[in-house]
Design brief:
The chain is mainly beta. The protein is 7% helix and 33% strand. It contains 5 helices and 22 strands. β4 and β5 form a beta hairpin. Bound molecules: ligand MTE and molybdenum atom.
Length: 371
């Protein structure tokens, strides 16, 4: 935990700081799901490269930001002001780093040692990508992917392809669901979260949600950037990276216990267990909770209205707790009949942990000690 303002304008109070340049800040478990939509101040931050400066991002004149569009019938570029003329849509969706839960794996997976707090649920406003494409005469005939490039400037002395944040996603996904967003939570996107323009890919892992997006290209092949070919692919421990391994695109179904927090002590009586659950492209429609380490389960109550298929569901489960130790676990199900496994598949890079057993939270229920 740390205090004070970071140089991207984020108040670090309450975050676990894994790195400051580039910024890697983890949200505290107990803040997850305290509101239906995560407060911007409580959103985790993950920058692979240092964030561009306010000048580079045109923060004094956001509408002047330029987006290049290629792989369409009429390639060209648009300012943010022009993009705003093409229409807008709001989408509430989970943003989660592929490595969220990495430290729960038994093997020593490399990368940021995330606990459970690299996840948020956020509302974005922007233009549907399809509208941008239509304004440029449609996608090129051979296009199979959308490739989006982040606006970080890359120093001359490093290999641009090994460094650039550039990701490809299937073209149908891009046209059906994606938005180029300028607002987060109905205010201009802060620098930490991708000002002034960000690609939002609902239901996909965080790395695909390109911040500071300066170019979109419809391409026949996936990007040859290292972050696409080699990194962010799932594979068994011990296997070498290869571009044929599945890319970290759609998120798997998952849930977290937010409160009580691990090791918390509570007095006997009414106890409310709270958490969040989310899927990838299919919405979560049921969450089960066990307070005896997975021996018996009961359905949790889903809180809030459904905010959309890729938003999280907050859930709540109330018990009368007697003296003893609670071993709390949760298990989410999605509408495509997918469920969290008891044990996650051990992933070489520590991606995609959704096993319910490793997410177990213990809570001791004891009468208050008299002094
Ligand atoms: N341009 C750019 N986009 C990026 C990144 C980055 O470093 N640069 N990091 C990615 C990763 S790995 C994640 S998990 C999310 C984090 O989004 P957040 O910092 O808004 O929480 O942004 C993604 N988009
Ligand atoms: Mo990430």
């Amino acid at each position: 935990m740390a205090g004070g303002l970071d140089h991207v304008g984020k108040d670090l109070d309450g975050f676990e700081v894994h790195g400051t340049d580039p910024q890697t800040f983890e949200s505290a478990r107990q803040t997850l799901g305290t509101s239906a939509v995560t407060a911007i101040d409580e959103m985790f931050v993950r920058n692979v490269l240092p964030a561009p400066s306010a000048d580079e991002l045109r923060l004094d004149d956001r509408d002047a930001w330029v987006l290049e569009v290629t792989g369409v019938a009429r390639p060209g570029s648009l300012t943010l002001a022009e993009l705003k003329q093409l229409g807008d849509r709001e989408v509430t969706t989970v943003l989660q780093c592929s490595g969220n839960g990495r430290t729960l794996f038994d093997h020593d997976a490399p990368g940021t040692p995330w606990g459970v707090g690299a996840v948020a649920n956020s509302t974005w406003t922007g233009v549907p990508l399809r509208a941008v494409v239509e304004a440029h005469g449609g996608v090129a005939a051979d296009a199979r992917f959308l490739t989006a490039t982040g606006g970080e400037s890359i120093p001359d002395d490093v290999d641009e392809r090994k460094t650039v944040v550039e990701r490809s996603i299937p073209v149908d996904k891009a046209l059906d669901d994606c938005v180029l967003a300028w607002d987060l939570d109905h205010t201009p996107i802060p620098r930490a979260h991708g000002a002034p323009l960000r690609l939002i890919v609902p239901g996909y892992y965080g790395v695909n949600q390109i911040k500071y997006v300066k170019r979109i290209a419809f391409t026949a092949h996936e990007s040859d950037a290292w972050i696409q070919t080699t990194a962010y692919r799932t594979r068994p421990v011990g296997e070498a990276p290869h571009p044929d391994q599945p890319s970290m695109w759609e998120m798997n179904v998952k849930s977290l216990v937010a409160r009580p927090v691990p090791g918390e002590r509570r007095a006997p009586g009414r106890l409310v267990v709270e958490g969040v659950a989310y899927g990838g492209e299919a919405p979560v429609d049921r969450v089960e909770v066990s307070v005896d380490g997975g021996r018996t389960w009961a359905d949790a109550r889903l809180v809030d209205d459904d905010l959309g298929p890729t938003a999280w569901r907050r859930w709540s489960y109330e018990i009368e707790a007697g003296v003893g130790r609670l071993e709390i676990v949760s298990r989410a199900h999605d509408r495509a009949d997918r469920t969290q496994p008891e044990h996650a598949i051990a992933d070489a890079e520590g991606y995609g942990h959704n096993g319910w057993r490793d997410h177990l939270v213990t809570c001791d229920v004891a009468a208050a000690a008299s002094t």
